[in-house]
From TrEMBL:
The keyword NADP is annotated on this UniProt entry: yes
The organism of origin for this protein: Kwoniella newhampshirensis
Chain ranges of the NADP-dependent oxidoreductase domain: 26-261
Family according to the record: Belongs to the aldo/keto reductase family.
GO molecular function terms attached to this record: oxidoreductase activity, acting on the CH-OH group of donors, NAD or NADP as acceptor
Domain of life: Eukaryota
Active site: 45 (proton donor)
Binding site for substrate: 110
Record protein name field: NADP-dependent oxidoreductase domain-containing protein
PANTHER family: 2,5-DIKETO-D-GLUCONIC ACID REDUCTASE, NADP-DEPENDENT OXIDOREDUCTASE DOMAIN-CONTAINING PROTEIN
Keyword Nucleotide-binding: no
């Protein structure tokens, strides 16, 4: 049985929390008190500053009872279609400054959409940011094996984390096998399928059998599958519930029942794992308009 504060060693030798709190700055004081030490943000969310500030303002951080090495912040390089892909290392430095915690523990490419050339430019910027000490570990999000294999053509550095939408309703077995073989840890975003499966009879049957809620069962499924969920609520009771997934276990039989729920159901409508398309954009210097 593991605990919310447990960590795992990544392929680059750095360690990462096994359960990350999602991008909700207002709930960070509660999350820290419940034991979360990993926090997620992104350039595209526009809340890097708020996330960093919320951590720094928490009394336990201020008085030194929680120290910087215990905290783990992930941020993400904005997608190729989000804004022009220039001065990327500079933009990573801006992210570090906005968060205000000296460095970023894990920096990932937010999505693979765009061209292979664009992904190469992004990856090499992450490699450079790591070399400069701006970030400790580098990875990707929603990259399929095809996108990951491209990286071997131009870099000796390989992603140590892939943040992907995986639940018992969408298990991506080929990607899971690829990541396992290549020692890439999988963080799972939208691990509760944004509540869209809360009424599922099998999920609720398992929840009833273990005396837990459907969302605790979904999170526990992730953890027992060897995945690292990224999850948050703005409601305090939900955060308490979500944090309490280390004091029960799903049996083999129950895991099998949940595995049988595979249906390719995703909350993000199109599967980015194989995609290259990049919507054309207009950048007016402040914001992007998709054309
Ligand atoms: N890499 C990427 O491209 C990517 C994409 C999406 C998300 N993410 C990251 O992953 C995190 C989580 O993903 P997500 O927000 O899309 O999906 P999610 O975790 O599957 O679902 C979040 C939704 O579930 C609700 N919720 C949370 N705990 C609950 C509980 N115990 N009972 C009932 N409802 C509960 C929340 O609503 P309330 O707040 O109203 O409770 C929220 O609307 C995000 O915060 C973000 O950091 C990354």
């Amino acid at each position: 049985m593991v605990a919310i504060t447990d960590r795992r060693i990544l392929a680059d030798g750095k360690d990462t929390p096994i359960f990350v709190f999602g991008s909700r700055a207002e709930s960070i004081p509660q999350a820290l008190s419940l034991g979360w030490r990993g926090f997620d943000t992104a350039q595209e969310y526009g809340n890097e500053q708020a996330i960093g500030q919320a951590i720094r303002d928490t009394p336990a951080y201020k008085d030194g009872s929680i120290t910087r090495p215990e905290i783990y912040v992930t941020s993400k390089l904005a997608g190729q279609s989000f804004r022009p892909q220039e001065n990327l290392v500079e933009s990573i430095k801006e992210s570090v400054d906005k968060i205000g915690l000296e460095y970023i523990d894990l920096f990932i490419i937010h999505k693979p959409y765009g061209t292979p050339e664009g992904r190469k430019t992004q990856w090499l910027a992450l490699v450079e940011a790591k070399k400069q000490g701006l970030v400790k570990s580098i990875g990707v999000s929603s990259f399929g094996p095809k996108h990951l294999e491209e990286i071997r053509n131009y870099s000796d550095e390989f992603p140590v984390v892939n943040q992907v939408e995986i639940t018992c309703f969408n298990q991506e077995p080929a990607l899971q096998a690829y990541c396992k073989k290549n020692n890439i840890a999988i963080q799972t975003y939208s691990p509760l399928a944004r509540n869209e499966k809360s009424e599922d009879p099998t999920l609720n049957e398992v929840a009833k059998a273990v005396g837990r809620t459907w969302n605790q069962v979904m999170l526990r499924w992730s953890i027992q599958t060897g995945l690292y969920p990224v999850c948050a609520s703005r409601r305090s009771q939900s955060n308490i519930e979500n944090s309490q997934v280390f004091d029960f276990e799903l049996s083999e039989d129950q895991m099998e029942k949940l595995n049988s729920l595979e249906s390719g159901f995703r909350v993000c409508p199109e599967n980015p794992l194989d995609q290259d398309d990049q919507p054309p954009y207009h950048w007016d210097g402040v914001k992007v308009t998709l054309l």
